[in-house]
Amino acid sequence: MPLSNDIIxxxxxxxxxxxxxEAILSDFENAKTTQSDFxxxxxxxxVFIKFPKEKQTFWTPQLHLEINKIDDNSSRLHGLFGxxxxxxxxxxxLHFLIAGIFIAFAIWTYTNWSLKESYxxxxxxxxxxxxxxxxxxxxxxxxxxxxxxxxxxxxNFMHTVLKIEQEKVT
Length: 170
Hints:
Elements: E1 12-17, H1 21-34, E2 39-43, E3 46-50, E4 61-71, E5 74-83, H2 85-114, H3 120-146, H4 148-162
Antiparallel strand pairs: 1-5, 2-3, 3-4, 4-5
């Protein structure tokens, strides 16, 4: 699972597994009780793998797996690495807030410019919003980079439970 794409803040992957989905889901249910390195939660066809609370930081990722039945002998697994949903919601809220302020002040700047009135304050706030958005993007990138080791640990655990060989990442 290469994590080299710098633009994607929440890496996704999918794979086909030559096993029935309920067998795979029960393997994750069993892993919940046989180890203590990860917290495994199952809801229907979804499995959430997290680190225990005492090992979590602000940027600690979790792995969300959706295991769908293709037929009686195969399943499709969709995986998504991401931060805690609360952190992600805050992150997205800040992005939308900054975008809304940017649009409002850009319109106000254009209106004052076309009316030939002073627009320095509005233009400054518009540019500040661009700077804040770029700052948020880099903060997310730094968070992703700092949690790469944790993502690999989650990925290794998933492959161990699935009993499949991992692709070698260089």
